[in-house]
Amino acid sequence: MDGMDGKESERPSGVLIVEDPGDIENKEDRTDASTLLERHNKIMAAILTRFRNMVLAATENLTKDVSIPQASLNVMTMNNEVTALIKEIENLLALSREIKQLWIAGPLRKPGNADEMTRDKEIDESANKVTDMYNTLLELQNLNNQKKTTLDALVQEEEERAKANGKPSA
Q1: CA-CA distances (angstroms) from residue 143 to 30, 131, 147, 155?
Q2: Distance CA 44, CA 52 (A)
Q3: What is the CB neighbour count within 10 angstroms for residue 1?
Q4: pLDDT in tens, 100-143
Q5: pTM
Q6: Dihedral through CA 131, CA 133, CA 134, CA 139, nearest 10?
Q7: 46-55: per-residue pLDDT in tens?
Q8: Strand runs (DSSP E) across the chain, as ranges?
Q9: Can you tell me the distance from the alpha carbon of 54 to that of 73, in angstroms, rounded to the nearest whole number?
Q10: Residues facing 8 on adjacent strands
């Protein structure tokens, strides 16, 4: 079985094995929607091809004169195809995790992009607004604590005067 380069190979018994794993691990522009869709399509095609090859090897008619070597070859082919099928499914799961990550965190931006500068400016403005609101809240809280302390002191002073004059406190 020598179809590792994406070409078709024919086994001695006439079963055609097609292997096309494709260049799934393209490092450039991996976050582009069309690239993600293309990678998904390549992975799905590889999964279907692996499954097809496995079924073909499992259902091949064996003649009596070559049955033992051919059966051994079929078992080996099925094992290889199952291993490759599992790997392709792992690739599909990795792609789905990558899509989820991009959906939640967003794609990485290239430095110096005009959109990045605009986004950074908006984030800085929002952060400054939040900081200002937090500082205002702290000032109001401190002012409230000062007023409460002053009010508590006045109430205590009034209670002491009332005790000194012999009047019950309210």
Answers
A1: 54, 18, 6, 18
A2: 12
A3: 16
A4: 888 887 766 666 666 777 887 888 999 999 999 999 999 999 99
A5: 0.47
A6: 120
A7: 999 999 999 9
A8: 8-10, 16-18
A9: 12
A10: 18
Residue 18: CA count within 13 A, CB half-sphere? 9
Location of structure tokens 């406190």: 169
Tell me the C-alpha distance between 87 and 93, whole Å.
Answer: 10
**What type of residue sits at position 39?**
R
Residues contacting residue 97 through CB under 8 Å, at least 6 positions apart? none
Place of tokens 């986004």: 119
Beta partners for residue 18, in sequence order: 8
Percent of the chain with pLDDT over 70: 74
**CA-to-CA dists, residue 94 to 32, 36, 50, 97, 153, angstroms:** 16, 12, 18, 5, 66
